[in-house]
From TrEMBL, chains A, B:
GO terms for molecular function: monooxygenase activity; oxidoreductase activity, acting on paired donors, with incorporation or reduction of molecular oxygen. InterPro entries: Diverse_substr_monoxygenases (IPR051260), Luciferase-like_dom (IPR011251), Luciferase-like_sf (IPR036661), NTA_MOA (IPR016215). It comes from Kitasatospora indigofera. Residues 30-387 form the Luciferase-like domain. Pfam families: Bac_luciferase. FMN binds at residues 61, 98, 148, 152, 222-223. Keywords: Flavoprotein, FMN, Monooxygenase, Oxidoreductase. This is Monooxygenase. Belongs to the NtaA/SnaA/DszA monooxygenase family.
Length: 444, 444
């Protein structure tokens, strides 16, 4: 396993999102809205990110849609199928898919990630979510979603099962010895015999241990439960942080919690999301930002915001302040995102229309509007001042916004010695400087 | 939709199976056993079958493995990931994956097939199984599998839900009208509000209707429950039939049941499995057959047979006849395959060693040992005498056995006007001459 280079380097993940992260990207003349349903568009994005030696691409996901056609944040494609289609046209970049622990069986999920890891030769990552909101639960036989704490309890047990299944074939257990006829080594494929509160799983998995041992574990929830879960399990963390001070506080807290959980904090990589709105001058960047915001359809944006908040605001007058929101303790969704949005609306006394405009660029992630130099300064500041190990890049329009970032910002960061010139490893774990886990069943 | 050509044509499906269907394929000098774990091997097979204008490739599947490393019939790769990897390197051939209704949620399954159908531009098919045996159930929180009849009851409701989800977006519901900001057409995306005995699913699906409307529905169970299910749902049927008379009886029965269910029997394509053991002379073919059988490891083969039968025969003396088997009413597995094997063992008074030898070639499917002309005659006979609409091709070794079939048998069948020279359609449904279903929610 190659070690992390002596000098700490930035990690970049491309956050895939249709034709762009801005709410109105699909209406902007620089995009082709039909591309969100065309696998070739995503293949082009993955190849462009790979050409720039990004660590990974990442697909968000949900298991719901609204019958008014408002997709919210939901991707058109299902993650395993889309990521495999990206694996087929790339060779180095990591492929991170979101799958909920709430609506899948651990055996199926362990298998699909192991299979993707084999097919991609060690490039699979799992962004672990517990899924917020009742709408998803209603697609799976429940009238309402499980409580936030129960979801995390289930998630922790889910991880115990999945990682045991990934280890159930020891490395090298597949012999394929033609002469003797021995297919697998006796005693090196294991039942896991998990019996827990939420799951009973015998094992073994029906696929040998995958190139990375365990696909990379990624997490994105920033609530108290979410941070505790990340400290225990996550190797990369995607997060939304608006200010440097908030970013530093989150970074320090998560590294501290990881250490308290007995882990090396350097092996938990923290990547805040950033929406780069670029122009050759600051004024040009501002004009693009305003041009995008003017295209927001408030009705659609309110539907998206309702999904994100877990509070139905459809029908509320656009030019009035938000109605009183329930206390966060009653929110059974993405608690930390709820608080971020609530605080923003209260602090700046925003009407609903103003709020959806403010969130249209990045759904709570920081939006940096400026020149490539200004964005590079911003990235360097966060990276060197204890707020980030890298960034989750969220271009407002795709593919154009990615091309801009790669052509205009990456060279500046390379010139400053902050970002690699090319890949030094071949697996996703190697890109992030993370070790390959040993199997738990292997004889000492 | 192109119509079926005026003259009825054969349909060919390549049944993917590691490095070959013969039990000992991995020990034969013509194979590379490590290829079973290499996606490039499967990509090469799919491209070769596509070059020969086969209708489809098909991947069997199970959700279990044995800790002694005996995989039985289980594929190394998970179907959605493997088939997407094949979609990425082909453009016309259909991609059929096995997924059980017993251990998946209908929302997840509907989504993954719809996503594969979009990615492949209309080439996805679902081989519907209910999964036999307790071992799989033990990976999903149950000590034993559900009863055969309950499994089929659940499967029928599962199909109701999945097809409704596939229809939940009407064709053309995705507007993407930039000028107006209308993303989807009002009233053309539907909740399905399914409330049944096994499932409650609100919908809609979070992906627009796929190129085929419904991915092709395939089925392979030949028990009474299985046939009734196929008559209601299946558009292609994979089956194991040993003799022409048995094949004709099955064909006639299933077509009759489909008609009784109100369907056009011509739209239920029946494809028996056949293992082509080819030689330039019959003696050469026999020599290959014997060479393969001599490589069978009886212990491993008994494990596979135990899985297929649903009766544990491991430890039974190899050179004695089978122990008394339970009545089929007590078999909660693949009932029709159990009867086929039991009858074969009784009819020919086989020891366990002889039985595993007899089954080693095709697990109950017909094994045709002979010259390309002889196999072409066999295929023509079944096709023209009411036993088959095509064949599920199961080469004993892969890729070599597929190459032999394509190079030696396909040209004979083309010369006889029985098999197409090239594709006439672009979707899997078009290859099989099947219509694209209308959506149930579309206004008249």
């Amino acid at each position: 396993m190659p070690e992390e280079p002596a000098e700490r380097q930035l990690h970049f993940n491309l956050f895939l999102m249709g034709v762009g992260h801005h709410e109105a990207a699909w209406r902007h003349p620089r995009t082709d809205p039909a591309a969100a349903g065309d696998v070739a568009h995503f293949q082009r994005l993955a190849r462009a990110a790979e050409a720039a030696s990004f660590d990974s691409v990442f697909l968000a996901d949900g298991v719901e849609a609204r019958s008014d056609g408002g997709w919210g944040l939901i991707s058109h494609f299902e993650p395993f199928t889309l990521l495999t289609a990206l694996a087929a046209v790339t060779t180095r970049i990591g492929l991170i898919g979101t799958v909920s622990t709430g609506f899948s069986e651990p055996y199926n999920l362990a298998r699909q990630f192991a299979s993707l890891d084999h097919i991609s030769r060690g490039r699979a990552g799992w962004n672990i979510v517990t899924s917020a909101g009742d709408r998803a639960a209603q697609n799976f036989g429940r009238s309402a979603n499980q409580d936030h704490a129960v979801r995390y309890e289930r998630a922790a047990e889910f991880l115990d099962v999945v990682t045991a299944l990934w280890d159930s074939w020891e490395d090298g257990a597949l012999l394929l010895d033609r002469a003797s006829g021995a297919f697998a080594a006796p005693g090196r494929v294991h039942d896991i015999d998990h019996v827990g509160k939420h799951f009973q799983v015998r094992g073994p998995l029906n696929i040998p241990r995958s190139p990375q041992g365990h696909p990379l574990l990624v997490q994105a929830g920033s609530s108290d439960n979410g941070r505790a879960f990340a400290a225990r399990w996550a190797e990369a963390v995607f997060t939304a942080q608006q200010t440097l001070a908030e970013g530093q506080a989150f970074y320090a807290d998560l590294k501290r919690q990881a250490a308290a959980a007995g882990r090396d904090p350097a092996r938990v990589k923290i990547l805040p999301g950033v929406v780069p709105v670029l122009g050759s001058t600051e004024a040009e960047a501002r004009a693009l930002d305003e041009e995008l915001d003017a295209l927001i359809s408030p009705a659609r944006a309110v539907g998206v915001l309702s999904t994100v908040l877990g509070v139905d605001l459809t029908g509320h007058p656009l030019d009035e302040p938000l109605p009183p929101l329930p206390p966060v303790t009653e929110i059974n969704g993405a608690k930390s995102r709820f608080e971020l949005i609530r605080d923003l609306a209260e602090r700046d006394r925003l009407t609903l229309r103003q709020l959806v405009g403010r969130l249209g660029g990045g759904r709570g992630h920081q939006v940096v509007v400026g020149t490539p130099e200004q964005l590079a300064d911003h990235i360097e500041t966060w990276f060197t001042r204890g707020a980030a190990d890298g960034f989750n890049i969220m271009p407002p329009v795709l593919p154009g916004g990615l091309d801009d970032f790669v052509e205009q910002v990456v060279p500046i960061l390379r010139a400053r010695g902050l970002f690699r010139e090319g890949y030094t490893g071949s697996t996703l774990r190697e890109h992030y400087g993370l070790p390959r886990p040993a199997g738990r069943y292997a004889a000492a």
